[in-house]
């Protein structure tokens, strides 16, 4: 039996190149450094070099935010119907829902439930950017309103983390109607003197920004999050002017009074607990 010839270079034998395991490294969009994925995850999916906050799914967000094993989901099996029989370029809305269920492991673009944050009981809603980019359709609107009613019934603070591309075009006017529906639910909550803390992650845009996301008693943004109704390119092309530096970032909105504070992900639990304690004095 012939031995397999070894690769050589200038008379030196070369060892076979080891393949790099997939998923070991991740590139930071902020500083463009290559980082160990495990190091980023241990840092709550925040770059340890430049503090860039990676976009995360609802399950990770809940795990980072609430006390361990305290999240009790509500309506987790609720899924969307197809009220308009929507199709686009040969793909149906139902096909897209099935694909995003498999990709994200979620049934819809928001998870709601009861939980504890540093021992404080809350009703929590967290949007799922990996499911149709966290867009708001009938199910998102319904689950949000159920969360509000649960907070009213049990006299608990309402915490909602938004991460969304806006209203869901696949549901047309049904989706747009959720803007009014969620806002009306928050008006009832406000009449009961409830505390609503709205957390804005990157991105928070469109109909979500134009409704419940900006109606918090306290509005918190993550660093450098894009927060807008229409995107910067759409605005620039419409009004034909050069937009200010950093336009529609969390920092720009803080400077102009649209958000109350910017909080790093690692400090969010403590800040929410502090705000709850402050309002309950």
From TrEMBL:
Transmembrane segments: none annotated. One of its GO terms (biological process) is malonyl-CoA biosynthetic process. It is found in: Cytoplasm. A zinc finger (C4-type) spans 28-50. One of its GO terms (molecular function) is carboxyl- or carbamoyltransferase activity. The keyword Cell cycle does not apply. GO terms for cellular component: acetyl-CoA carboxylase complex. This is Acetyl-coenzyme A carboxylase carboxyl transferase subunit beta. It comes from Anaerobaca lacustris.
């Amino acid at each position: 039996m012939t031995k397999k010839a070894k690769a050589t270079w200038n008379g030196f034998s070369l060892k076979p190149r080891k393949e790099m395991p997939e998923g070991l490294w991740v590139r930071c969009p902020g500083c463009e450094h290559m980082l160990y994925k495990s190091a980023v995850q241990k840092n709550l999916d925040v770059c340890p070099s430049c503090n860039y906050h990676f976009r995360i799914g609802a399950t990770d967000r809940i795990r980072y935010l609430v006390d361990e094993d305290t999240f009790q989901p509500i309506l987790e099996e609720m899924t969307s119907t197809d009220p308009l029989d929507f199709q686009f370029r040969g793909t149906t809305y139902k096909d897209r829902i099935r694909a995003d269920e498999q990709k994200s492991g979620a049934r819809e673009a928001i998870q709601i439930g009861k939980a504890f944050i540093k021992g404080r009981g809350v009703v929590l809603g967290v949007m799922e950017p990996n499911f149709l980019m966290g867009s708001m359709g009938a199910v998102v609107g319904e689950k949000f309103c159920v969360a509000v009613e649960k907070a009213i019934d049990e006299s608990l603070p309402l915490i909602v983390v938004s991460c969304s591309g806006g209203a869901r075009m696949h549901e047309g006017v049904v989706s747009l109607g959720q803007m009014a529906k969620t806002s009306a639910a928050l008006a009832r909550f406000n009449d009961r003197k409830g505390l609503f803390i709205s957390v804005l992650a990157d991105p928070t845009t469109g109909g979500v920004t134009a409704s419940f996301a900006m109606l918090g008693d306290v509005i918190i943004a993550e660093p450098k999050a894009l927060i807008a109704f229409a995107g910067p390119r759409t605005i620039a092309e419409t009004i034909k002017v050069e937009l200010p530096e950093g336009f529609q970032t969390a920092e720009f909105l803080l400077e102009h009074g649209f958000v109350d504070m910017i909080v790093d992900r690692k400090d969010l639990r403590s800040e929410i607990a502090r705000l709850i304690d402050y309002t309950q004095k």
